[in-house]
Amino acid sequence: MGGCEDGTVGSAAVELVSLAKRYGRGPWTLNGVNLRLEPGQVYAFAANNGSGKSTLLKLIAGLVRPTAGVITGRPRTVGYVPERFSARERMTATAYLTHMGRVKGLSPATARHTGDALLQRFSFTGGCDAELRMLSKATPRKWRWPRRCWCPRTC
Fold this sequence. Notes:
Elements: E1 14-22, E2 28-37, H1 53-61, E3 68-72, H2 93-103, H3 108-121, H4 139-142
Antiparallel strand pairs: 1-2, 1-3
């Protein structure tokens, strides 16, 4: 948490105060969470399936809103990679990386070039046209946007 464009870590801690989340009228997924995440630290959340770990991470990243409580100190830019892509997702590996490059502000050509370079860098064996839903859970987590671009092979 707290990463900046230049790779430095922000100075503010992220604080969760009395955080709670409930989807619709169902049971509380999280209730009364108080947590302080210091910049530059690594945190691991380990608990049973269905205990709210993914919901907590989505709340911290700002992807979902809490039902109650507040989050302060969240950096302006937060990176998040979902655990799994939807079974209906037809986006290819190249299209996903190009899209993420565009979100980051790269031109379409630079985003495509950088995405291709990442696929080469990690010896991606699924092929550039592999659909995200067909990839292992770990594959998308390897992809990071590098500072400099290098010449990739053509997919």
